[in-house]
Design a protein that fits this description.
It is built from eleven helices and five strands. With about 270 residues, the protein is an alpha/beta fold. The protein folds into two domains: about 5-70, no CATH class; about 75-240, Rossmann fold, CATH 3.40.50.300. Strands 2-3-4-1-5 form a five-stranded parallel β-sheet.
Length: about 270
Amino acid sequence: MTMTDEAALAAIGAATRELRTPVIRREAEGLAKRAERAQGSHLAYLADVLSAEVEERAEHRRHRRVADARFPRTKRLADFDVDAAPSITPATLSLLANCSFLAAGEPVVLLGDSGTGKSHLLIRTGIAACELGKRVRYVTAAQLVNELVEAADERRLSRLVARYSRVDLLCLDELGYVQLDTKGSELLFQILTEREERASVALASNLPFSEWGSVIGDPRLVAAIVDRVTFHAHIIETGTDSYRLRTTRTRRSQGSFGSTTAGARTREHGGAN
């Protein structure tokens, strides 16, 4: 007996709820009408509805991976302003976008002064890895050390180290802004050693390697950490010219600061709403 369209939709609804395939339930009727107009085969229609479900699930997984990585903000390499960072070449952006360094567990080190785009590139690289299906975790050096010290005090360090070792890419930001004590430096070294030549670390620092001793007190640890993060590393220098400072100077030269100040002064004296 031929099933009516109404009965077919009811059966699809019941089956997709059982199978937990909401996209098929939502798209089935519209795709069927499109298939009729195109005089497509039953197999082509089935392929369309299954592809719709698969694509949406993949998109949900991408969003979940980005959320799990805990980025402080969302930036994508496709939106990167190459004019703002002339030292970053298209070849470098391609390397970061396709994450080819992940397969060999190679490190990426971003070095440059504050405001030169290190963190933005780091976040963009992490998001690119998420979109490629990789597990990523973003954390500042100070946050990571604090987590490790707390875990060590609570006798759960091994579990935390294991959790960090499982991510495909560890994005470690702001190494150089906060001084690390000996215990914190040793724990950081443990994380880096656990990942060496097996899983990549992407690291951003405002200090050249020669100055890492100013934030890591033990010279032997400094040498060991530098050795870990530079072996087979892709070292990218973002320069010394702060994009934020350059933008501020440009706005000032264009008079935007004067008008803003004048507006604020007018509001102070009650002349504008």
